[in-house]
Design brief:
about 190 residues; alpha/beta; Maf protein; 7 strands; elongated
Length: about 190
């Protein structure tokens, strides 16, 4: 048995490595847009499953892990900002408020598919315009849902987290581990990370 991560995210790979879960990486390209009127919970579950299924078609004998993360505030899902203006707009929206980070995960192994959505609530401190401008200038916001990295410079703006910290980074490790066990997978018996 071998675990394959269907993601190019260095943060997801780092989280699996830190947890001592061996894996290979096989990034896949899918259309990551939400459908019109699709709830964020449904979208992250669907996208995680689509990634896992696409990678499983290439590696049919592996356990394949797909994941997708979004940030939700006031029923609006925030994707990755495309530019500085969009990043600043997202940070203004999050500033001084509580938002939710949702990560959909899917494990595929042969005919089985296990899908789970992990919610985590994050309280962001009030940020002034100079703090927002400074943070955007670090270039950290651009490849992160919601425009911030909880494990990076943005950690200074986080007032609290209710739920899984690793979920906010991009992968709820405890839930991944539980799903692996549900599949009957002994992570100690998985192949070595390459």
């Amino acid at each position: 048995m071998r675990l394959t991560l269907a993601s190019a995210s260095p943060r997801r790979a780092e989280l699996l490595r830190a947890a001592g879960i061996p894996f290979d990486v096989l990034p896949v390209e899918i259309d990551e847009r939400f459908y019109p009127n699709e709830r964020p919970e449904q979208a992250v579950a669907r996208l995680a499953e689509s990634k896992a299924v696409a990678a499983a078609a290439i590696r049919p004998d592996d356990i394949v892990l797909g994941a997708d993360t979004t940030v939700v505030i006031r029923d609006v899902a925030l994707a990755k900002p495309a530019n500085a203006d969009e990043a600043a707009r997202m940070l203004r929206l999050l500033s001084g408020r509580t938002h939710e980070v949702l990560t959909g995960i899917c494990l595929c192994y042969h005919a089985r598919r296990l899908v789970h959505v992990e919610p985590t609530r994050v309280r962001m401190a009030q940020m002034g315009e100079s703090e927002i401008a400074w943070y955007v200038s670090t270039d950290e916001p651009y490849d992160k849902a919601g425009g911030y990295a909880v494990q990076g410079f943005a950690s200074r703006f986080i007032d609290g987290i209710d739920g899984s910290y690793s979920n906010v980074v991009g992968l709820p490790i405890s839930s991944v581990y539980q799903l692996l066990k549900e599949l009957g997978c002994d992570t100690l018996g998985l192949g070595k990370t390459r």
